[in-house]
Amino acid sequence: MKQQVNQNQIIDKTRAFIMEKLAPDPTGHDFHHAFRVARTALHIASAEENPDLFIIELAALLHDIADWKFHDGDEDLGVKLAYNWLRNAGASESDSEKTAAIIKKISFKGAFVNSVPESLEGKIVQDADRLDALGAIGIARAFSYGGFKRNLMYDPDLPPVLHHDAESYKNSRSTTVNHFHEKMLLLKDRMNTAEGRRLAEERHRFLELYLTQFHREWNGENS
Ligand code: NI
Fold first, then answer.
1. What is the pTM for the complete model shown?
2. pLDDT tens column, 165-205
3. Which of 93, 185, 188, 205 has the highest count of CB atoms within 10 angstroms of its CB?
4. Among 96, 94, 97, 36, which residue's Cα sits nearest to residue 64?
5. Alpha-carbon distance 114 to 118, whole Å?
6. How far apart are CA 34 and CA 15, in angstroms?
7. Ligand 1 centroid vs 49 CA: distance in angstroms?
């Protein structure tokens, strides 16, 4: 019982920390994203056998303070930040290590770059993070991120590229519609869990519907 209270306190502190840390983020990675990922991850976890819910919630809340796209090549910086935060908040060394290991593996680094966490908890959080890049919210986040990167929303003369390494994925010029093809539409085939896959298929269909309508309007098809 005592440990339970302690875990809840660590979760509460971590939520407050994330609200402060990710509040001003204009790229679709604000704290609401972290909270949605935590909620979806706990939902996916309920269909799995005995995952550690404490680790899942911590990793989901903290996963984007380590986002490699925002740390100029030093992805370990965010991982260390998460680890130190957890130790200071009172998490055990083992729980802090497990959480940090998940965060290190989680983000999408290009079409041909596969990075899957070893633990069940990590696989669940990765699925939840990917689900937030799909569906209506995924579309909204993609256009926010594109605006932040000063990308065009669409350019018919710039075809999508499937990136073979993380560097070229991060640095190449693209459009938000290309981002659908370079990342978002690839995600449903990379889900780790059955429930993640089911939800991804649903949200994937919505992306396809959206793109069809987008191109209809772009091409001036009015009937
Ligand atoms: Ni994320």
1. 0.90
2. 777 666 677 899 999 999 999 999 999 999 999 999 999 99
3. 188
4. 36
5. 12
6. 9
7. 24
